[in-house]
Each structure stands twice: as structure tokens, then as C-alpha cells.
TetR/AcrR family transcriptional regulator (Cytobacillus horneckiae), 836 residues
Amino acid sequence: MSKKNKPTNQKVMSFIEKARRAQIVECAIETIAEVGYAQASLGQIAKRAKISKGVISYHFANKEELMEQIPIEYYKAWHTYIFPRIEAQKSPKEMLRVYIESNLTFIDQNRQHVFAVIEMVSNTRTADGKLQFAAELDEAILLPIENILTLGMQEGVFREFTKSSARVMALTIRSAVDGFTLELTRKPHLDVQEYTRELVTIFDKSTKK
Amino acid sequence: MSKKNKPTNQKVMSFIEKARRAQIVECAIETIAEVGYAQASLGQIAKRAKISKGVISYHFANKEELMEQIPIEYYKAWHTYIFPRIEAQKSPKEMLRVYIESNLTFIDQNRQHVFAVIEMVSNTRTADGKLQFAAELDEAILLPIENILTLGMQEGVFREFTKSSARVMALTIRSAVDGFTLELTRKPHLDVQEYTRELVTIFDKSTKK
Amino acid sequence: MSKKNKPTNQKVMSFIEKARRAQIVECAIETIAEVGYAQASLGQIAKRAKISKGVISYHFANKEELMEQIPIEYYKAWHTYIFPRIEAQKSPKEMLRVYIESNLTFIDQNRQHVFAVIEMVSNTRTADGKLQFAAELDEAILLPIENILTLGMQEGVFREFTKSSARVMALTIRSAVDGFTLELTRKPHLDVQEYTRELVTIFDKSTKK
Amino acid sequence: MSKKNKPTNQKVMSFIEKARRAQIVECAIETIAEVGYAQASLGQIAKRAKISKGVISYHFANKEELMEQIPIEYYKAWHTYIFPRIEAQKSPKEMLRVYIESNLTFIDQNRQHVFAVIEMVSNTRTADGKLQFAAELDEAILLPIENILTLGMQEGVFREFTKSSARVMALTIRSAVDGFTLELTRKPHLDVQEYTRELVTIFDKSTKK
DNA sequence: TATGAATGAGCCTTCATTCAT
DNA sequence: AATGAATGAAGGCTCATTCAT
């Protein structure tokens, strides 16, 4: 994944160490959100964190390791927020509604972080030029949607989906959520509730029997 | 838009000059598509084009002017491809189908260019950190969808749309198309026809009365 | 003066920082003195200082900030050297003699620095092509001469001077000093004492009643 | 003088060739006068001359050869203007007055050319970093003054001068003339006649017995 | 003779990274 | 655990020069 092998000896981190890393990651997120990935140099990040550049290098093996934390942290927070809400629902139709609602709410409440992740995903590459997080992260994000669709189909409340048509449906829902993010970036005063209602309607209709 | 005023005196370009510029733009597209926007330095582009770095500076005032050509050319080609096909349709429903079909076909046939534009859109910023093309380009792309939706509503074949719900619908369709692009990048052997059919189905259902 | 606003927040510099900057400025002076302003690239300066190019950028915001130090330091040193000597004199005639003597001595003892400043003055331009230091620095240098002339006239030991004829006289004295500098550059083994005596004689005669 | 040996086979130049070279030199003078030596690239000069950059390279072996013409042409014109006027005088005192007067007039009437020469003299270096024209040109310019001084001394109208005190006197006069040039650059609306009168007075007094 | 095109060296600057303290 | 200092590679750009046409 990275040029340098990640150290297998996952050092046990002290509490302070963890806190310091978290603080730096936080600053990295803010920086990316404000000036964009390309301008988010270690210098910029350090300045915002009011620490010296060296500190970052001290706590992270390299820039890459720091940047990796951003989607990791994001995914953790996202997972924690989304899943309990979905699992609290009984019907697939409700699950889908809640998936859309909770995603949009989560994005609305974590704008900086979301934006930083988007910046990263579209910028970070492996040595051979492939997009970095695309594959793995996306599967993790698509799977729950596909599961809901499958469940709904089995229960007879959704229309028929083949494996691949379920994937297209899942990708479209996912894209709609990402599209909302971009629109929110462009129009920060967007009426989130209305947008949510519309998306729910759209995907309610398009999954109905 | 740029710090340096764009020269209004569009110099008359010789045929050769035009061809050379086009060739360099082509190489820039390839380079961005392969290594990403951030890594697409003039050096990289020149290497791919097997010319010296200076040649690029000779034909373009600066990197910005070169990069600007990419979405400009893209939008021209897109417009030329999409619109006649839509206008050949009689019903809004057909128009929407053809919008989706022709977009996916166009993307499939211009993968590199599309990808390069996506990279650019998500990377290029103005001096104050705002995304560059977001606003203007997006309106140009969303408007035709909104027009189709409005038309379909007036003709009574689509459900009711308020101005803002039509916009959400349009954004969702647009997002679905962009989502296809990303998926195509990740899975180059994707069954494009099937994907197209599914998207048509999804948005047929979600716009229906 | 410069495109980038000069930071008003004069950062408190550590002793080491000051010393390093001074050392780099010193090397810049040497470099300009040896190869001329046009050839005095950061690379050249760094090579002479046996440091990497980056170090200069680390200590100075940009080349301009480094170069600005040269006349600033020069003027400080010049002022410190010249003025006490003039003020120690009682008569305007002695003041004029000492002005010439101390200037020539100062130049003789700071050949490189003087030369570097001359190079800068005749090379540095503002964006609109005007010579940079010409105006401001020159007034600061001419004024003391004009004051001596005025004083001598009031005391009746110098001939009459109008405001503008005093200026021509001052300019001529200043030019003679600068001319000495150039001659010293061309003939490093010049007899400075004799040259001084002659200049004193010339301007003694030409100011006499 | 130059890195590349000047071709010994001084090709006989056609009239047209001479005219073209003269035109280019003229443009080079204008360019230097307006934007300064450092900014006077072949591109700039070519643009002003409304010819292609290649033309310059075609007519001059390299930039250096072009630039060399500027002081050469200047010296020719200067010589042609100054000497007949001096030789028309009978007494050394008159000669000195006319030397100053005609120099200032010449400078006033050839501002651009004079300024371009100053820029060049202070910028052009040989490979070893020495100022280029300093030596040779200066002797040619100082000698006539020294001759006047010697003559005046022999005729008993000037005070005693040793060889080296005559040189200092000559240098001072020369410096005064150069100082006038700089002042003229800074204050284009200078009263040239008054300045001339003052200089004549100054050097009349300082050479008098 | 003149041109447009191309080259390649050099410039200033930014930045991730290293290291002694 | 943190810092300031230094490095060196790479970036975009300018420019004198070369060359085929």
C-alpha cells in the first residue's frame, strides 16, 4: 500500500501519544477542508496546530501515515453513527429511509471531515497511480446498502434485483449521498431536511415493487 | 479567475499551432488520467509527449492555461454528443432515457478525458481555496436535466416537481452518472449496457407519476 | 515595495537566527561583489556559503527580503561611521573635509559591501521598471551635505548657494565619492590618502567664498 | 572579451544588413532604457522591434555581440558631438566649460541611449566577473579631460596638477557628469541649463590657480 | 533572410523529511 | 517529547540559443 512497509510492531501507544496523534489528525482535517489537499502541507498543518513541523514527523512515520488516519477515523465515526440507527429499524423500507436520512445528517454534522475525506480519496494514489481507498472503502460502504436491498427483495417489499442490478442501485444511492455532499459544499445553506425528504422519495419509488 | 488577466486578444493561431496545443492537451489528459492531477507536473506531461518541458511553456502561457483547456474541450465534446441525441426525442421520458444512455456511452468512449476532468474539478482551486469549476460548469450540466423534468411535468408524464425538488432529482441523476464514471475507473470491464439499463429503470421509476 | 506585504509582525529572532541571517547576508554581499548582481543567484550564494539553497529560503521569505538587507545594513554602518565624525567638527569647512575623508575611508574599508550596494542600486527595479532605491536612499545621503553647505553659507565661510545650487554642489560631492568607489574597483591599489587629499582640495576650492 | 571568439573574418556587410543591425540595436537601447538591463531579454527586444526572436540571432552571433554595439555606438556619437566643440575653443578654461556644457547637452538629448549604456556598464561582466567596459571606455573618456587640464596648467591658467592629481580632477569631472545623468533619470524635468551653469562654476573654481 | 518551433540550463520557491539538541 | 535547522528533490517558469523550413 505504501512504499515504506508499515511497521508490524504496532507499538503500544500511551494515552498521551494517542491524544497527540488525534489532535494532529484533527488539524489535518481542518486544514484540508479549508485549503484543499494539495495545499495541505505539513507546514500548514503544523501552523494550524501551533506546533513545529517536526512534531508531526515525530508522531507519524510520514505524511502518508497521517493522511491515512483521516478516512480511517471517518469510517469509524460513520459506522458508529449509521449502523445502530439502521439496525433499530424493522422493515427494509425503513432501513433504506434511515440509511439516507442518517447519512445526510451525519454529513451535515461533520462537514469538514467529510470534505477532507473526499479531497483525500480523489487525490491519494498508490505508486502505480491507482486511487488508493477507492476499492476497499467503497466495498465497506456499499455492502450495507446491498444487504438492505436483498433483504427487501426477499421480504417482497422491494422489486426484483439481480446481484448486479442491486449493485447499480447501491452505487446510485451511494452516489446520491456523495452528490449531496458536493452540493452542500457549494451551497452551505442548503435545506438539508428537504433534500433528505426528496432523496428518500426518489429511492423509495425506484426500489418499490 | 486567474491572477493574470486572460489576454482578450485571442491571437490567431496557425493550424500547426492549434494541432500542437491539441496534442499537448491530449497528453495532459492522459497524464492526469494515469497518475492523477497532483502528480501531473509539466515534466511528467512533457515526458509522456516526448518533448521538452519548455515546449509546453512555449505553447501555453502557463500551466493554468493548459489545464483550463481540458474541461473546456470536454464540455464542447460532451455538448456536441449529448444534445442532438436528446433533441431527437419526442417525449420527456425518452429524453431522460437518452440523456442517461448517451452520457454513459460518451463516458465509456472518453474514459481518460472524463477522468481527467473529474480530477481537475476536485482539485483545482481559486486563490481563496474555493473549488474552481464547481459552480459554473455544474449549472451548465444540471440545467438540461431540470428542463427535461419540467417539460415532463407539464406534459403530465412525470410526477410533480417543485423548483427545488427538481433540482434534487437533477443532482441525483447527475450524481448517478458521475458514480458510474468512478465505478468504471475501478472496474474497467464493467457491463456498460446493463448499467445503463438499470439506471434508466431507476430514474424512470423515480420520475413516474 | 514588494508584491507580498511585508509582515509587520517583526518576529522575535533568536540570537542564532540573527547570526545565521547575518552570515547569509555577508555571503550575498561577497557574491554580488564578485560576480555582480545579475549573476548572484541563490544557488551561487548558497555555494559560496557552503550551505544548501533551501537554507536561504528557510531564513528569508524570499530573495527580495535577503537582498533588501544589504543596503539596509550598509546604510546603518555608514551612518554610524560618518555622523559622529562630522559632528565632532566645529567649522563647516572641517565638516566638509571630514565628510569626504570619512566617506573614502569607509568605502576603502568596506569595499565589498559598498560595491554590492552599488550593484543593487543600479539593478533593482520596481514592477513598473523604476529604479528602486534611487529616491529614498539618495535623499538620506544628500541631505547632510546640503546641511553642511547651508551652515557654511550662513557662517559666511562658504560662497552663496541657492537651494538648487546647493543641491548641485551636494550631488557633485556625492558623485565624486561614488566615482572614487568605481575607480577603486578598477584600481584596487589606488593611493586612497592622496585621492582623499585631492578631493578635499577640489571641494574646498569650489565652496570657498 | 567574449567567450566565443569574435569571427576574425569581419564579413563585409551589405547596406541592408547594416541597417537591420542598427535597427535592432536601436530597439535594444529603447528596451533597456524602459525596462532595465535585467529584463531586456531577446524576446522583449524582438517584440518591440516587431520581429521574431530568431532574427536577432541571425544578425548577431549572440546577445553579447548585440549588447556590445550599444556603448560602441554611443561612444561614436559622443565623440562626434563633443570633440569638434572642444576643439573650437581657444583657451583651456573655455574648453573645460564646453566639455561640461556639451556633455550635459548631449546627455539631455540622448537620454535613452545614455541610460542604456549606464545599465550595461553596470551589468555586463566578463566570465571572471570583472566589469566589462570599465577600463577601456573610461580611459577614452578621461583622457581628453586630462589633456585639457595639462594644457591649462602649462598655459598657467589652471593650478598645478601632478599626473595623479590631474586624474582625480578628471575623474571628479567625469563623475559629476555621470551624477547629472542619474539625477536626470530621477528628475526628468530638471533645469538642465542651471545644472550646467553650476557645474561650470564648480569646476572653474576648483581648477583655478 | 526570416520565422516559428524546440531545447535545455538555470532561476526561485515549496516541501517532506532528517537530525542534533 | 519537541524543536529549529538544514537538506535536496521537484515544481513552474524564463530565456539564450539552435535549427529546419
The first helix of chain C runs from residue 15 to 35. Chains C and A do not touch (no CB pair under 8 Å). Chain C is about 75% helix and 0% strand.
